[in-house]
Amino acid sequence: MNDPAPSFDRRGSLRKGVYLLPNLFTTGSLFAGFYGIIATMHGNFVIAAWFILVSSIFDGLDGKVARLTGTTSRFGVEYDSLADLVAFGVAPGLLMYAWALKPFGKLGWLAAFLYVVCGALRLARFNVQVDTVESKRFLGLPIPAAAGMVATSVLLFYHLGGTGTIRKVSVLLLIYVLALLMVSNVRYYSFKDPGLVKRQPFGFLVLSIFLIIVVVAEPQIMLFALISAYVLSGPFGYLVTLPPFRRNRRSKTDP
């Protein structure tokens, strides 16, 4: 998920070769996203949604593998961004257009295009700010999370018994909201806190196992709920930092 190392040897040359393992994971992410596009073209919206989620798994692994093996490179970062644009920008945009936005005519395809272009801007901004922004927070909704919101919305619709396509203004509004959140200054937790991999209380392990069991039991519902909570966490965190909320909190703590 846009997870490169903080610095690179910019004088390096491709003549020295490229690192195979992390770029294979990136290729897996790109392949899954591309197959999602193919599935959308054939009207297999559920398969397309699952492949977008599979792509996010590969995307989450490539940066971590690169850091663990000491194989980060500028080539890998650029390749990862291009793969992300296809897998989490174009593929979800086409999926939502074919599944829900086509009946809205111009408003529909403009919403799909806005989603794609905002995803591209989000990736470009991340790449130029990677050395200056806080590592524990993303500036704007990460594009894999936006794509996950799209994919799980489709999966939930069919899991609850929906058939064919859907025509609801709420879906149109969702795409516009996701697009704007990606280019906003709303901050999201990055899950790159080193403390997460250190020793944790035993209860955390039990809670994690329980959460995995619940997700496996009802993946469509739980994945939608988890990603929705993450998408909403940014605006909620922003609201509680506004002056009225800060004043209320201070007044409650003051003697």
β-strand percent reads under 5%
Q: What low-confidence regions span 5 or more consecutive residues with pLDDT below 50?
A: 2-12
How far the N terminus sits from the C terminus, by CA atoms, comes to: 44 Å
Compute the CA-based radius of gyration: 19 Å
CATH topology: Four Helix Bundle (Hemerythrin (Met), subunit A)
Pairing-aware structural class of the strands and helices? Answer: mainly alpha
Shape: globular
Q: What is the helix content?
A: 55-70%
Largest sheet: 2 strands, antiparallel
What pattern of helices and strands is seen along the backbone?
A: HHHHEHHEHHH
Number of strands: 2
Name its key features.
255 residues; mainly alpha; Four Helix Bundle (Hemerythrin (Met), subunit A); two-stranded antiparallel ribbon; 9 helices; 2% strand
